[in-house]
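TASK: fixed-backbone design
INPUT:
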């Protein structure tokens, strides 16, 4: 780890002001991913700005407009919050399927959005990596790529986004609030994370100097039917091979509305708009769910070692939709 200066921010305005004093500064809150990266020199900031004491731990109802969650609310606080458990059980279950209880107790919602891929080549500085050092190469393409992407990859990077929570937020059409010296803005969740393209070193569309201050969950009347299904190598403290966030609104056995997003398959949470469009208006039955799964996986491009993800994702989608059509619950 390289030495760095440590300062505490007293407000969001103070945090963005301190960031301007040194371009090679980074915010730190829970630090559950950043400290790992500092230890192996993936990040070498001159200054760390501690934002963990800012007044951004709220979880508040917005009349007729869902719930607003402060960026410093911990994963545990959000997953256990009565309104989240009741109105957005999909989000609660996704958070609880990630990491360990100890990590969830300190990891924050804002930090969860910014955690970086767990591609092993990225963390091993003996290897080249375009995400770590642009232009150096991507050894995963010809290497061990069992955990990597089947959608949206480029010839520069085939990594996947590691978050479970973000898959649920994608399905819920969340909105990210950010603040900088230029003012405040809101980013639709689907626009927040990006595909690698030619610049895999950039994971998000955050602009220089911006601090995440909150995440808004719009009201989704059928979110109570939400299901988060995660397939992984062991049943705790493991990243998803494939995950599915699904919610269905079924009226008289016909699908009125639907949300479907996949995790562990792309550089960002992968919303399946074509499958959603297919499902709307159809009968809620196993044949339709099977066809929707086929549509959702159209265009998948498996690599040498991860072809199993295609069938795994299809079966996971069918199971998640089936459980959601029955009213939701644990997958
Ligand atoms: Fe680096 Fe991305 Fe290639 Fe992994 S997949 S080695 S993160 S460029």
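OUTPUT:
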């Amino acid at each position: 780890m390289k030495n760095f200066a440590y300062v505490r921010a007293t407000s969001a305005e103070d945090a963005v002001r301190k960031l301007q004093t040194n371009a090679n500064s980074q915010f730190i809150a829970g630090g559950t991913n950043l400290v790992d990266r500092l230890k192996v020199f993936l990040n070498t900031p001159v200054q760390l700005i501690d934002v963990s004491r800012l007044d951004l731990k709220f979880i508040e109802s917005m009349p007729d407009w869902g719930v607003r969650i402060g960026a410093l609310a911990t994963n545990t606080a959000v997953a256990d919050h009565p309104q989240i458990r009741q109105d957005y059980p999909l989000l609660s279950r996704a958070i609880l399927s990630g990491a360990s209880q100890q990590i969830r107790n300190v990891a924050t919602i804002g930090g969860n959005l910014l955690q970086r891929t767990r591609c092993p080549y990225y963390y091993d500085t003996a290897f080249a990596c375009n995400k770590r050092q642009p232009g150096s190469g991507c050894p995963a393409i010809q290497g061990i790529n069992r955990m990597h992407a089947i959608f949206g990859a480029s010839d520069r990077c085939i990594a996947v986004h590691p978050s479970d929570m973000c898959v649920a937020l994608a399905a819920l059409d969340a909105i990210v609030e950010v603040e900088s010296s230029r003012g405040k803005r809101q980013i639709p969740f689907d626009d927040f994370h990006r595909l690698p393209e030619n610049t895999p070193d950039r994971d998000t569309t955050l602009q220089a100097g911006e601090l995440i201050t909150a995440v808004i969950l719009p009201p989704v009347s059928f979110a109570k039917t939400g299901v988060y299904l995660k397939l992984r190598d062991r049943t705790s403290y493991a990243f998803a091979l494939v995950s599915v966030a699904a919610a269905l609104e079924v009226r008289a056995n016909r699908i009125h509305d639907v949300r479907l997003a996949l995790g562990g398959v792309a550089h960002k949470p992968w919303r399946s708009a074509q499958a959603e469009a297919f499902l709307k208006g159809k009968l809620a039955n196993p044949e339709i769910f099977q066809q929707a799964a086929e549509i959702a996986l159209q265009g998948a491009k498996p690599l040498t070692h991860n072809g199993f993800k295609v069938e795994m994702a299809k079966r996971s989608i069918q199971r998640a939709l089936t459980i959601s059509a029955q009213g939701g619950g644990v997958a």
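COMMENT: The first helix runs from residue 12 to 21.
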